[in-house]
Amino acid sequence: LRTHFEAPACTIGHSLGGTAVLAAAPRIPECRAVACIGAPINPAHVLYNFHADISRIEQTIRTPIDEVVGINNAAPIFYAAKHPKSFLSLDSASHLLSNRKD
Fold first, then answer.
1. φ, ψ at 86 (rounded to 5°)
2. 33 vs 40, 46, 75, 88, CA distance in Å?
3. First vs last Cα of the chain: how many Å apart?
4. Tens place of pLDDT for every residue, the chain, 102 residues?
5. Which of 17, 35, 48, 94 is 20 to 30 Å from the Cα of 24, by its Cα?
6. Strands (E), the chain
7. What share of the chain is helix, strand, coil (3-state, %, to 5)?
């Protein structure tokens, strides 16, 4: 992107994509914000060769009924993030956000 357009100012990822943007953000100096939707806090099978920078997260989006990545993953990510930060609860959403309203 940087070569042909410009580097991203923010990265957004869902589930393991959230883990991927955590890993990518430190390599993108222009990135000022990271948003994770339903990202696992400790996906050792994915992060073993990445250095995730959780402190750069500005928005954590979770659903308390997620059966794939439990809500218990949200607190460590949210607490590690520095201000400004926000937490958004999608009360009735599934992990895959399959309902258009969500």
1. -145, 160
2. 18, 21, 18, 15
3. 29
4. 888 999 888 888 888 788 788 778 888 899 888 887 777 766 554 444 455 566 666 667 777 777 777 777 777 777 777 777 778 777 887 776 777 775
5. 94
6. 10-14, 33-37, 57-62, 86-89
7. 30, 20, 50
- Residues with Cβ within 8 Å of residue 27, at least 6 apart in sequence: none
DSSP state of 48: T
Output phi, psi for 7, to 5 deg. -70, 150
Q: Rounded to an integer, what distance in angstroms lies between the CA atom of residue 100 and that of residue 58?
A: 24
Could you tell me if 52 and 80 are in contact, meaning their C-beta atoms sit under 8 angstroms apart? no
Opening angle at CA 36, ends 35 and 40, nearest 5: 160
